[in-house]
Amino acid sequence: MSEKARQLPTVSEVVSVDENLMIKLPESASKALEISPGTKLLLTAYPAVGEIVMNVASRPGALLAEARMVIDNHPGAMSKITGKIAEMDINIVMFLLPPSTKETISGTMLFDLSRSRATLKDLEKSLSQLDVVKSVVTRFT
């Protein structure tokens, strides 16, 4: 853990799930993370340990998209992918790429296309043409 993370206060509160499976974020957490209506959160559930983790994915107004990919698992593969994304002036918000010893890896990337002239279709086409990308499916979130 970084020194900065150790110094910052942690917000911990118990929340309830209502009859519509909705959770109301505590005001203290919303303020600490500058969460306002329209903010998108990435929720990751770990059923084996009974844990849910949420990360701020984008602020209101961002044009958030997701790409699920199967890519080659060798040095330089991510460099080719991120280079192509940078050429298109697309911001990578985050990516989830689990460790693997197999020949390929399945992962998910979140993008903010707000400042790019590229469309989601352009992004998918450009990524699918890379030799290190075995498959890619995109969608707006």
Structural overview:
The protein has helices at about 5, 25-30, 75-85, 120-130; strands at about 40-45, 50-60, 65-70, 90-95, 105-110, 135-140. About 20% of the residues lie in helices and about 35% in strands. It is built from four helices and six strands; from the N terminus they run ααβββαββαβ. The strands form two sheets. Strands 4-5-3-6 form a four-stranded antiparallel β-sheet, covered by helices on one side. The chain has a two-stranded antiparallel ribbon with strand order 1-2. The chain is α+β, with helices and mostly antiparallel strands and about 140 residues long. It folds into two domains: about 5-60, Pemi-like Protein 1, Chain: D, CATH 2.10.260; about 65-140, 2-Layer Sandwich (Alpha-Beta Plaits). The two termini are about 30 Å apart.
Topology:
Layout: H1 3-7, H2 27-32, E1 40-46, E2 51-58, E3 64-72, H3 77-87, E4 91-96, E5 104-112, H4 120-128, E6 133-140
Task: Provide keyphrases for this structure.
141 residues, alpha+beta, Pemi-like Protein 1, Chain: D, 2 domains, two-stranded antiparallel sheet, 33% strand
Secondary structure: number of strands? 6
Shape: globular
Structural class, from secondary structure content? alpha+beta
Helix proportion of residues, in percent?
10-25%
Strand order of the largest sheet: 4-5-3-6
Contiguous low-pLDDT stretches (5 residues minimum) are: none
- Number of domains as seen in the coordinates: 2
Look at the structure and name the CATH superfamily of the largest domain.
ACT domain
CATH class of the largest domain: Alpha Beta
Write the element-wise H/E pattern from the N-terminal end onward: HHEEEHEEHE
Roughly what is the average pLDDT, rounded to an integer?
92
Characterize the largest beta sheet: strand count, sense, and whether it forms a barrel: 4 strands, antiparallel
Q: With helices defined by DSSP (H or I, 4 residues minimum), what is the helix count?
A: 4
Approximate strand percentage: 25-35%
